[in-house]
Design goal:
By secondary structure, the protein is an alpha+beta fold. The chain has one domain. It is built from 3 helices and 6 strands, in the order E-H-E-E-H-E-H-E-E. A 6-stranded mixed sheet has the order 4-1-3-2-5-6.
Length: about 120
């Protein structure tokens, strides 16, 4: 896929980000280019010296080879990803170390590794 082949969306201000860390997040192209919903999201310690929230958003069907290629994920503002998938909004201010999986079309649960990730494409 071409580098700038992101799905065009209308970005509205959906969240207030007033946390002391930046609002950047790393997002799989499966979400921003292929149209999958967020299936797995986790928040790690933000990269210091960068405007990083620590959030990482994946569709859940990426394999190691896909993730090892830096061309398959990009940095976005957290609010922008909320516009791609509004289901993540209730979890955005979760603590560092949090991890959630999608369990059905609209819901997430804390990831305890006991359930599979529900993978679904956005409806256009």
């Amino acid at each position: 896929m071409e580098k700038n082949n992101f799905i065009k969306i209308n970005v509205e201000k959906l969240i207030d980000w007033n946390e002391p860390v930046g609002d950047g997040c790393i997002v799989s192209d499966k979400i921003t280019k292929e149209g999958f919903k967020v299936g797995y999201m986790y928040r790690e310690q933000p990269d210091s010296g960068r405007p990083d929230s620590g959030w990482r958003f994946l569709a859940g069907n990426e394999d190691d080879d896909y993730m090892d290629d830096p061309n398959n994920h990009h940095v976005f503002a957290v609010n922008t990803i909320c516009n791609y998938d509004r289901d993540i909004i209730p979890y955005i201010h979760s603590d560092i170390g949090s991890a959630y999986i999608r369990t059905d079309s609209n819901n997430f649960e804390i990831d305890d590794s006991s359930k599979p990730i529900y993978i679904e494409k956005q409806k256009n």
